[in-house]
Amino acid sequence: MDIKITPNLIHDISENWEDPRKGEETQEMIEAIVAELKRDYRDYQRRHYNMSDEEAAHWEGLISDVTNRDFWDKIDHLLQFRFEY
Fold first, then answer.
1. Residue 28 CB: number of other CB atoms within 10 A?
2. Is the Cβ–Cβ distance between 84 and 19 less than 8 Å?
3. Contact 10/72 with Cβ under 8 angstroms?
């Protein structure tokens, strides 16, 4: 199944992280996201063999962040955030 990260999906992940009924499905989705990010990272490494420390930190940080509920809560908050400029 091909799933795209959307504001609705982000909200669902944030809301269902610890839900007794939906938490297991949410964790399975997180595992799938991590697996895909790791695959993308390996592909990126193959194409950019002189990868900088900053690029490596970006990928490793992103992979780590998606396993943390705070990450999803923050993104959900920002997606709902409105301000005047």
1. 10
2. no
3. yes
List the one residue out of 72, 6, 74, 1 whose CA is nearest residue 32. 1
Q: Are 78 and 10 in contact (CB under 8 A)?
A: no
Per-residue pLDDT of 10-24, as tens digits, reads 999 999 999 989 989
Contacts of residue 24, defined as CB under 8 A and 6 or more positions apart, other chains included, come to none
User: In this structure, what is the dihedral angle of CA atoms 39, 17, 65, 44, given to the nearest 10 degrees?
Assistant: 20
Closest by CA to 73, choosing from 25, 18, 2, 32, is 18
This model's pTM is above 0.85: yes
Amino acid at residue number 76: D
Integer Cα distance of 73 and 32 in angstroms:
19
Helices 7-16 and 69-80, packing angle to 10 deg: 130
